[in-house]
Each structure stands twice: as C-alpha cells, then as structure tokens.
Amino acid sequence: xxxxxxxxxxxxxxxxxxxxxxxxxxxxxxxxxxxxxxxxxxxxxxxxxxxxxxxxxxxxxxxxxxxxxxxxxxxxxxxxxxxxxxxxxxxxxx
Length: 94
Known about the structure:
By secondary structure, the protein is an alpha+beta fold. It is built from four helices and four strands. It has helices spanning 11-16, 19-38, 63-71, 74-77, and strands spanning 2-9, 42-47, 54-59, 81-88. Strand 2 (42-47) and strand 3 (54-59) form a beta hairpin. The mean pLDDT is 95.
C-alpha cells in the first residue's frame, strides 16, 4: 500500500524556535527519512521547488503502520511541520 504525507511548514512554530533548533529538527527529519528509505518504507520524498512544504510517499502494509511512521517523524513531533496522511491509489507506475 502507498501513502502520501503532505507536509505543511508551520511559520508560527518557526517564529518561536531559534535557528539552531530549527536546523536540528531538519537534520533529524532527514536522518529519519534516510532510515525509512534504508528500511524500504520510504518510496520517495522531497520539498516542493522553492518551498519548505513537501511530500513523503510511504510504502507500508497498513494505514496503521503509515500513521505510526508519521508519529515518529521529528519534523512533525516538533510541530515545525504539520502532516496529513492520504492513502494513495496508484493509477500508473513505471
């Protein structure tokens, strides 16, 4: 099953955090995504061009697993991003 997580940057949280903390959150977020990729759970991910918002595409066995993966993401846990999870019904795939 595929799931898309739509990430929205939270400017209000950004304003409350210092730059070092924001960099740490981003570093830990990327590290977490890399681990998911290595574990075969992350299909693809990245920001939209010129934006801080982005998407993550997960390949998991269940909606519960996708939700659990989201709940552990440092970017979401810090509230620097909000995330919305969608089950993706792939119509075409290379």
